[in-house]
Design a protein that fits this description.
The protein has 293 residues and is α/β, with parallel strands linked by helices. Helix content is 34%, strand content 23%. Bound molecules: adenosine-5'-triphosphate (ATP). Residues 56-280 form the ABC transporter domain. InterPro entries: AAA+_ATPase, ABC_transporter-like_ATP-bd, ABC_transporter-like_CS, ABC_transpr_TagH-like, Bact_Polysacc_Export_ATP-bd, P-loop_NTPase.
Length: 293
């Protein structure tokens, strides 16, 4: 594990991770906005084999009524985490480390397989932008549709349309069906709609890279504005410069585990160093007990 100041940055081993309790934020006398305790998340891939007579008999004998899992994969392991009001968190880690999965868990897209997740406040996930868009509908109709999915009424969204057009520069294309938008135009619209709301907790996954260079600058500016208005922000990005610029606390993930938590400069420094010297493998741990019900 890379070295750093022991007073500020916490380096986690498995045993520390399991013994660390998540307590009330006594310093401020308030509950943290986000609390994760002993969280693990498992993906199960089901086989798509042909349904043979032999398999049918086996399933009857074994009294199985659902497909047999082909393989399972723990994308998150033993995560304990507290995020307080006003924190700007940047998450780093190599491909497949579990960063996006952690954001999806905080957005309640995935439930944990073990442990508890508490999120206090309205969450705006800039995660799968444009996921709810309909390519047959116009840009304008998609703005209203997406707003409805985020919980806004038609009237509330109509009041936001002008601002969205202003920001995206797509006013002239408002009546064009989305299927004729270029990928850059699509990304602009999705980003414009998703950032038009004022969330308490903002989750951003690699969204700083949308559109062309000029739009990326506008997007960053927009995120800065949102960051000023929201209570907590969590950014996942491989653009380390942006994380250094926008965040104060860093989390480093490796193979589904939180391996370090501390001031952003220290975490980024150690992470960059690790690309020259690989991160030691986390100690093998016992399978977490599954939550029932
Ligand atoms: N729905 C899923 N089903 C099965 N495995 C999944 C699923 N989603 C993610 N994974 C796996 O979980 C692991 C963590 O993925 P995740 O997308 O969270 O990584 P990441 O740190 O965001 O990576 P990157 O930097 O490449 O975006 C990967 O091995 C990925 O293949």
């Amino acid at each position: 594990m890379p070295r750093s100041s022991p007073t500020k940055t916490r380096w986690f081993s498995d045993s520390e991770g399991r013994s660390r309790g998540v307590r009330k934020d006594r310093a401020k006398g308030v509950d943290p906005l986000i609390e994760l305790r002993g969280v693990s998340l498992r993906f199960v891939n089901y086989s798509d084999k042909m349904y043979t007579l032999k398999r049918a008999v086996l399933e009857l004998v074994l009294r199985r009524d659902r497909p047999v899992p082909n393989s399972e994969f723990w994308a998150l392991r033993d995560i304990d985490l507290r995020i307080r009001h006003g924190e700007r968190i940047g998450i780093v880690g190599s491909n497949g480390a579990g960063k996006s999965t952690l954001l999806r868990l905080l957005a309640k897209i995935y439930p944990p397989s073990t442990g508890t997740v508490e999120v206090r406040g309205m969450v705006a996930p800039l995660i799968e932008m444009g996921a709810g868009f309909n390519p047959e509908l116009s840009g304008f109709d998609n703005i209203l549709l997406n707003g409805a999915m985020l919980g806004f009424t038609r009237k509330q969204m109509l009041a936001k349309v002008d601002g969205i057009h202003e920001f995206t520069g797509l006013r002239d294309f408002a009546d064009l069906p989305l299927k004729y938008y270029s990928s850059g135009m699509f990304a602009r619209l999705a980003f414009g709609v998703a950032t038009e709301i004022d969330p308490e907790i903002l989750l951003v996954d690699e969204s700083l890279g949308v559109g062309d260079a000029a739009f990326r600058e506008k997007a960053k500016e927009r995120i800065r504005g949102l960051m000023d208005r929201s209570h907590a922000v969590i950014l996942v990005s491989h653009e380390l410069g942006s994380l250094r610029e926008l965040c104060d606390r860093g989390l480093w993930m490796h193979k589904g585990r939180l391996v370090a938590d501390g001031p952003i400069d220290e975490i980024l420094g150690a992470y960059i160093e690790s690309t020259a010297t690989p991160v030691p493998e986390p100690e093998p741990a016992a399978e977490p007990a599954e939550v029932s019900g």
